[in-house]
Amino acid sequence: MQLGLVGLGKMGFNMRERLRAGGHEVIGFDPRPEVSDVPSLAALAEALPAPRMVWVMVPSGEVTRQTIAELAGVLESGDLVIDGGNSRYTEDGRHAELLGEKGISFIDAGVSGGIWGLTEGYGLMVGGSDEDIARAMPIFDTLRPAGDPADGFVHAGPVGAGHFTKMVHNGVEYALMTAYAEGYEMLAAEDLVRDPQAVYQAWTNGTVVRSWLQQLLAKALKEDPDLANITGYTDDSGEGRWTVEEAIRLRVPVPGIAASLFARFLSRQDDSPTMKAVAALRNQFGGHAVQRISESG
């Protein structure tokens, strides 16, 4: 099958390689000429025979909106666009409508797997019509992990369902990573525990908390036992925030996901204004001691 792939960053580049290894003809476009197969989106459309299929793998937000708008101008009726980036699901309806005015179909695809997807396969959560999903299945089958399709692929529902599912996936990921990290800190704080890395390594098999993320933490601790080469500053890419916002809309309690998001905010503060205010209040109402910043420092 022939596919156009827009965006050849960490994920897109490896997806192109996996698809080519699976026998597909993939023509990639990226603003960086050293990795791009064609010089423009218009050239990409010209290189693909109709009906075309184009997978968009670019940063969410304005870049995705501009890319889909430009594709609407160079593609034709009967073509299909798949947004595989981390777009917010509320964008999908607008993208489907914009493309639909030209007779172009749309699928939203949540993609998980990161840099390991090239060899391990990508977990796929897609939204769209049955007809469009069936049309793209040869691509999905090559990208997903080997084995039972149900263990790595889901047609979650109509347009929007794929990205909604991926949003929740990433919210769960936030909470899982925080739980594993808190466990590591507790093990490291207790003198009775000789080697926290060995504990996480042992949890790899037979335990109820074993998972790929747990294995990755064991790997990270083996490479840097005290995590001395990195700081605790942790960004968030948006999906965790969106998960909490949607949970509020749906009146679904997500305390673990919310706490993990706020922990990332806290990681970016050298000194918490909130806790400084709490210390000041304790001093004001009860005369409790506070730690003063040295005037000489």
UniProtKB/TrEMBL annotation:
Pfam families: 6PGD, NAD_binding_2. Residues 162-296 form the 6-phosphogluconate dehydrogenase C-terminal domain. SUPFAM superfamilies: 6-phosphogluconate dehydrogenase C-terminal domain-like, NAD(P)-binding Rossmann-fold domains. The keyword DNA damage does not apply. GO terms for molecular function: NADP binding; phosphogluconate dehydrogenase (decarboxylating) activity. It comes from the Bacteria. InterPro entries: 6-PGluconate_DH-like_C_sf, 6DGDH_YqeC, 6PGD_dom2, 6PGDH_C, 6PGDH_NADP-bd, NAD(P)-bd_dom_sf, Pgluconate_DH. Signal peptide: none annotated. Keywords: Gluconate utilization, Oxidoreductase. GO terms for biological process: D-gluconate metabolic process; pentose-phosphate shunt. The keyword Oxidoreductase applies. Belongs to the 6-phosphogluconate dehydrogenase family. This is 6-phosphogluconate dehydrogenase (Decarboxylating). It comes from Mycolicibacterium bacteremicum.
